[in-house]
Amino acid sequence: MRVAQVSPLYERVPPLAYGGTERVVGWLTDGLVERGHDVTLFASGDSSTAARLVPGSACAVRLIENSADAQAFHFAMLEEVVRRSAEFDIVHFHTDYLGFPFARRLVCPSVTTLHWRMDVPGLADLYRQFADIPLVSISNAQRAPVPWANWRATIGHGLPERLYRFRAEAGGHVAFLGRIAPAKRPDLAIEIAARAGVPIEIAAKIDNGDRDYYEERIARLFDMPHVRFRGELDDAGKSDLLGGARALLFPIDWPEPFGLVMIEALACGTPVIAFGNGSVTEIIEDGVTGFIVDSVEEAVAAVKRVGMLSRVRCREEFERRFTVQRMVDAYLGVYEELRNARRAGESRGTREADMPAPMQAAAAPK
């Protein structure tokens, strides 16, 4: 199958350090190539891929964001996708609703995976205007604000099986991995560790937009004796951090659409202690691959009993549910469904065009 993957341009594919959407795009793209599909990746020019790369910008736009118009790069890239759409059997957008008007002009079918939250004011009206655009959610929870949208599947993310090393024995620390942002609640992770009497190792990105939050609320917490801040880590560093942890702390304060770090932890065999917001209950099985809690007090208690959980079982659940192979299989099913629907529609249109006008009216759906 000839597939176009269309990535956001803010980060390269895959990112060298922190990054969610672009990492998933990279794994999916390379997974399709490994299956023998003809894949074209529209992404920043510094991306690394097994597919054919069409650069939408010379480098990740975040590197030049202060002096460039990020949307200009995206609009130019999306217009190029339209211009070349006859070359593809399917176009897969990862650019949120930005690609919707362009998707209507393609000569091939398309699908858009939504990677962000859907409960933002204004989105419901927008999705009603583009109700014809086929969508994939990354969790069922993500769909909740717009359940009537044109959803074709829910497909969770998948990691390469050998990206992270399974560790049968836990170390003494708990881990926090992600961004230093109010919705991620690193302050609660630090409090939970302190009250449980265990050290915490934190690997996180500090975005410019979160700099004030970090300086006003978090920086002083990093001076506490039980806290070790490790900055941003690559995959080898994350494997070490997560694999050596007795648990990942995930005390989120927002409707997380997926939470890639949770399956990264499971790949290492590390259970997850998480607040039950967003997709958490779809990824973590309470009492099996972690504990789902409602308060700091419950999280502290969970840290003290997390050793009762099987790290082997955590890894097994990762292998069963969250690999690239499983993700590729699911997307190929959606691609085939949309391509077959387009062919059926074109065939029906051809037959009806050959009919006399009264017969066309009779054949039209009621």
From TrEMBL:
Residues 174-304 form the Glycosyl transferase family domain. Residues 343-366 are annotated as: Disordered. Residues 343-354 have a biased composition (Basic and acidic residues). Residues 355-366 have a biased composition (Low complexity). Residues 18-127 form the Glycosyltransferase subfamily 4-like N-terminal domain. InterPro entries: Glyco_trans_1 (IPR001296), Glyco_trans_4-like_N (IPR028098), Glycosyltransferase_grp1 (IPR050194). It comes from the Bacteria. PANTHER family: SULFOQUINOVOSYL TRANSFERASE SQD2. This is Glycosyltransferase involved in cell wall biosynthesis. It comes from Paraburkholderia terricola. The lineage of its organism: Bacteria, Pseudomonadati, Pseudomonadota, Betaproteobacteria, Burkholderiales.
